[in-house]
Amino acid sequence: MSFPLTPGAEGLRARLFHIIFESDTPGAKAFDIALIVAILLSVAVILLGSVEIYAERYGHIFFYIEWAFTLLFSLELLVRLYCLERPTVYLKSFYGVVDVIAIIPTWLVLLMPGAHALVMVRILRVLRIFRILRLMEFVGEGRLLLDALKRSLRQILLFFSSILMVVTLFAALMYTIESPESGFTSIPMSIYWAIVSITTVGYGDIVPTTSLGKAITVILMLIGYSIIAVPTGVFSAQVIRSIREDRYSEEACPGCGHDRHEKRARYCLRCGTWLDENSEDPRKKAHKESSDDETPSEDK
Amino acid sequence: MSFPLTPGAEGLRARLFHIIFESDTPGAKAFDIALIVAILLSVAVILLGSVEIYAERYGHIFFYIEWAFTLLFSLELLVRLYCLERPTVYLKSFYGVVDVIAIIPTWLVLLMPGAHALVMVRILRVLRIFRILRLMEFVGEGRLLLDALKRSLRQILLFFSSILMVVTLFAALMYTIESPESGFTSIPMSIYWAIVSITTVGYGDIVPTTSLGKAITVILMLIGYSIIAVPTGVFSAQVIRSIREDRYSEEACPGCGHDRHEKRARYCLRCGTWLDENSEDPRKKAHKESSDDETPSEDK
Amino acid sequence: MSFPLTPGAEGLRARLFHIIFESDTPGAKAFDIALIVAILLSVAVILLGSVEIYAERYGHIFFYIEWAFTLLFSLELLVRLYCLERPTVYLKSFYGVVDVIAIIPTWLVLLMPGAHALVMVRILRVLRIFRILRLMEFVGEGRLLLDALKRSLRQILLFFSSILMVVTLFAALMYTIESPESGFTSIPMSIYWAIVSITTVGYGDIVPTTSLGKAITVILMLIGYSIIAVPTGVFSAQVIRSIREDRYSEEACPGCGHDRHEKRARYCLRCGTWLDENSEDPRKKAHKESSDDETPSEDK
Amino acid sequence: MSFPLTPGAEGLRARLFHIIFESDTPGAKAFDIALIVAILLSVAVILLGSVEIYAERYGHIFFYIEWAFTLLFSLELLVRLYCLERPTVYLKSFYGVVDVIAIIPTWLVLLMPGAHALVMVRILRVLRIFRILRLMEFVGEGRLLLDALKRSLRQILLFFSSILMVVTLFAALMYTIESPESGFTSIPMSIYWAIVSITTVGYGDIVPTTSLGKAITVILMLIGYSIIAVPTGVFSAQVIRSIREDRYSEEACPGCGHDRHEKRARYCLRCGTWLDENSEDPRKKAHKESSDDETPSEDK
């Protein structure tokens, strides 16, 4: 989604707009890089700030750095809004919301320091990286992936609901077999264990102790180990399809209605009709000149 | 499989049938959603009921809720049977059995409370979700997956029997090498360990202690890590095939017997024979009118 | 590989041969199933025999059962050799060696009981299952898989040697960083840890304790998590190729030398030459009869 | 990259060059094998030397062996440089740097023994194996893989940056939920845990203890379990593409500009133009001789 510049914007405003919202000029590129660095730094500060020893030693420094970044991002947001024709529209957009989320909590934290729980909200600013990804033309790739995901979505949903059923049944089974001492204190806990096992994570915090339990676990693990082939296979197939279809145009042939031609095709590959209506069929001319001579139309 | 409505059923009965057994009317859709919610809720109650602290505090509430759901499902089943022409046929079908299984145990549990072991049977009602999946047109996807699975079944069977042989041999080897103290108390136990390792689950409850044991473990893990490519590769290939064949009709060309035409093909792509017997070949007409003029038949 | 029956073998001998070495008659099928059951049972006995409590309680029974199976397999081997023209050839073949291995150790064990180490050799009889797989026409599937494996072998070798290099470097790095207390007592031990990590097994018996070590581990795990895509991708591609090529004949077209025709193709799909030299080209006849009428040859 | 031999090099020098830098003569092959054995042995010595018990017992032997290998590799490097026209160019190349790295540290270590930290640098000599891989014609395979990797690189980058965002968010969430006692002492630590979980490694050194934490972990594990399908699918698709394109030539057809012909194609598969300019189109002749007779050009 793009946001229009205020029409008839004077020099400064227009220049700011191009720098902030586009990425084709050197200035804009520099701004993007500066921005992503700033985001990563501010995230790094939050991460380090959560480490006790660093917090004790450099707590106050982090505090000032965070102040700086908050002011920086606030300023940036203000400039963004200043450039745009309809700021409110932007604020309601995904990127607008992320921008606000990236700022507000820090203000709160700075006003009432030590709001431990807010770290979660503050970290949300990593989402701003998506903007940069967008600018870095990763969108094309992303679209292809999303396209394939959309196609395989229902199959993967089916796959997951089946997994969850299997997991629930195995969990209930283990709950009845294993003793609570070995960690299977309830069905939800057993479900946690079953998912740890079927996803092949295997923490080992809950482990079967009875022989029967181990036998069932073996089955569950083999299911988890082999069933991963299903989403992978489905998704591979869909990616391949997406790549292939990228090569084909959607227009049907006027002659035979065949509608899977490579984009650069000039003749229908089924009935040979001339597809490109902008130019004339060379075979026509060829025919006028010579009829006994070898012409492409008869070759094929 | 579908179940016929009693022929000449009066208004109410017919209406109930459409609501319960179909999903194309708003009423039917609402019913499906209500049903799936009810199923999930009743499963949730069972799960929570297995957590001690909740059981102690809200045990009696869960008891009443379970009563309610049991009555609800029983009523639903009765209505289903009431709608159908041959109820017994339905009861013998997969969905019928699941419906009964979803009800009976609860009755037993309610009559003799605290039957801990029955939780396994009670949880079986999650299987009812399959019905909803069916209604949600997931069947198409499912068929495609099953189609691919059927195709790769023998290869995957071969894959598994090979894995089990490898696992057995490694297990016996580790049993002879490792000391019982480190958990390899018997070959079955070693097999459990070997599968935990080859599936990359790696609980860590049994772990090699000797250098030789560790060396063998390394080999086993590398096998498990790379061998997963086999079922995945096979399955991917089969899914791709299923998708592709979905595009082709099975009817052979009367001209040359070629039988892999796209469903929308009108000419045989090998010998050019007209495939659609419902309409007439445009080339015929074209020929009558003009023989020197460029006709699709000669283009190609 | 197949083994010839003694030529001019009298009734009994020939009948035995067909039952034992083939699997197309009911008798032969029954024999196969009986054999596989016997093999699995004898393996099961070995497995259970390694469990202490069972060994104590039913040790003597296992002893007798093993006697029985050993005699049975010995008898079977003798009959096999009796049927064949050149027994020695068979004994030198893979299946012959497996058959002998499946018997000898048990004799040794029975003569000097409690030879703990020999369990490894005794278990080798599971390999006999391969014979059954062969009879069950799994070979076709197996060939396809092996075909694809052979094709991707070098890439997968390259993949593995790269992994081992990465693993060695990471192991040496962790050995220098982590303290021996946390398990990194030597580079070989670190390599064991690195492989446990890169294969996503993650026992947790050796775990990084320093921050730097954890950071490096993160990189190693991400490598292991994503690099699995390489063998899978390569193998998938090769399986797809194998399946596709299965559809094509290797004979080149006499007209244009194109050599990728579907096995059921009758005309060369590039230059239209008639491929099946056993029958005559219908177009020829068609031409004789009528030249202005629509003929397949001109359609295409 | 290849390095030229000093022009007009006399016998010995030329012979050495062919033996060391090529691998088509028996002598060269022998040298390669000897070299790879030497490299592997010297690496093995380093590995064993890091094991305490071996170091104590055979420390001095390892010391001498290392001396031997160092002298050997130094000699080899000198000979290489002696053969080449521009030694400095070689020394600046990847292989040259690796060769030097493989020698220098050992010299240092031998002069100041027990430089524990240097083991990391010494192990770098495993990189020399790449040279052998190159000689073993693995390059072709490697190129195909790298080609596919390059193609899927951006998608996999996108994939990783998304994973890291997910991981950061989950880590921050768990840090706020879980107590430091259970290991979530800081966000970086939680990130370590999140990656251990999402990559399905699952050491189990840090594990959620609260119910809410376990619920979130379940989501994270399911994400990690299914998301692996993305890079695998992308990469599979790209490998398949690389293999396919390997079959096609890049030259466009002079007739219709179609530029995806199989390398062995002789006619353009879209417009039938003759592609091989070295020989003459057989259809031409066919036409001269007979016009009513069946000619390939009209067949198709």
UniProtKB/TrEMBL annotation, chains A, B, C, D:
Annotated signal sequence range: none
One Gene Ontology MF term: voltage-gated potassium channel activity
Positions with biased composition (Acidic residues): 291-300
InterPro entries cross-referenced by the UniProt entry: Ion_trans_dom, VG_K_chnl
Localization of this protein: Membrane
GO CC aspect terms: voltage-gated potassium channel complex
Record's keyword terms, sorted: Ion channel, Ion transport, Membrane, Potassium, Potassium channel, Potassium transport, Transmembrane, Transmembrane helix, Transport
Residue segments, region Disordered: 276-300
An individual GO BP term: action potential
Record protein name field: Ion transporter
UniProt source species: Vreelandella aquamarina
Lineage: Bacteria, Pseudomonadati, Pseudomonadota, Gammaproteobacteria, Oceanospirillales
